[in-house]
Design a protein that fits this description.
The chain is built from eight helices and seven strands, in the order H-H-H-H-H-E-H-E-E-E-E-E-E-H-H. It is an alpha/beta fold and 287 residues long. Strands 2-1-3-5-4 form a five-stranded mixed beta sheet, with helices on one face. It has a two-stranded parallel sheet with strand order 6-7. The N and C termini lie far apart (60 Å). The relative contact order is 0.13. The chain binds zinc ion (2 copies). One zinc ion binds next to loops. The site of one zinc ion has 5 residues, from loops.
């Protein structure tokens, strides 16, 4: 099904609030874009039908803002295309609010930051220790184990380089704080979290202190810059979630929800560094 982009209203410059009539006459829950917005935390059907269409439009605005698209509230081609791009399976809930909080703390300085922390701090979404163990439970068949282990070590190191955290690989039999596992399809995380084959959701992870990151075994994982999905980039992103980071709307952030290729730029943006340091502080001075 395709929707046409709707022009802005001539008089007000605001996007028209009406949906294409074909959309209004259908059960919204049948639409793939509505399921997408629900899965990623932009929309949940509550209240009257009339309220639902306003909520739907607001959900599209919020999705466009987080995705760095022009904010129109209209389900245009660019917005629909964005929904098909490979991404992380974690919802974007709170990413706008958490980002706004980081920015205002940055500009308001340290004292305001401490005040804010008292008001907004959500206890529980961080680790209360700085030395964390991890285990790679399994890995993609096509990739050699030592190379995957190296990528995992480097991905954890990205975060320890810019924070007070330290990571070590747990022995194969003992307990580990963070476990990285490749799964296929439904893997007892609820149907919304079932993996969807190549493309779509590539991986997901849980906030502290569950310590789980799951990767879709059906992706064409590689450690190359050119072909397939670069596992190192996705590992680094999911590890960010296991440390307590939400998605970032900042351009070029590693914690942005969409998959990005491994480029020549630094993988962590200023916003990623700020987010992890807000939780765990800066790295200790090393001589
Ligand atoms: Zn994510
Ligand atoms: Zn899972």
């Amino acid at each position: 099904m395709e929707y046409q982009a709707m022009p802005l209203s001539q008089e007000t410059g605001a996007p028209p609030y009406n949906f294409p009539s074909s959309l209004l006459s259908q059960n919204l829950s049948q639409l793939p874009d509505k399921a997408f917005l629900e899965k990623y935390g932009y929309f949940s059907e509550r209240g009257s039908k009339a309220a639902a269409s306003t909520q739907f439009s607001n959900a599209i605005r919020e999705f466009q803002w987080v995705s760095q698209l022009p904010v129109s509230g209209v389900l245009d081609q660019a917005t629909l295309h964005q929904m098909t791009r490979p991404r992380c399976g974690v919802a974007d809930t709170d990413s706008h609010a958490a980002w706004a909080e980081r920015i205002s703390a940055l500009f308001a300085g340290h004292r305001a930051k401490m005040r804010r922390k008292k008001r907004f701090a959500k206890p529980g979404n961080k680790w209360y220790k700085q030395h964390l163990s991890y285990r790679l439970v399994n890995w993609p068949e096509r990739l050699p184990e030592p190379a995957v282990r190296g990528a995992v070590r480097a991905a954890f190191q990205l975060w320890s380089n810019v924070s007070a955290l330290e990571f070590w690989e747990a022995p194969a039999t003992g307990p580990a704080d963070i476990r990285l596992t490749f799964f296929q399809g439904d893997h007892n995380d609820g149907l919304a979290n079932a993996f969807d084959g190549p493309g779509g959701a590539l991986a997901h992870a849980f906030l502290p202190r569950r310590g789980e990151a799951h990767f879709d075994r059906d992706e064409r994982w590689t450690l190359s810059r050119r072909r397939g999905r670069n596992l190192f980039v996705v590992l680094a992103h999911e590890i960010g979630h296991t440390l307590g980071l939400a998605h970032s709307p900042a351009p070029r952030a590693l914690m942005a929800p969409y998959y990005k290729k491994l480029g020549r730029d630094a993988l962590l943006s200023w916003d990623d560094v700020l987010a992890v340091q807000n939780l765990y502080g800066e790295p200790p001075a090393r001589s």
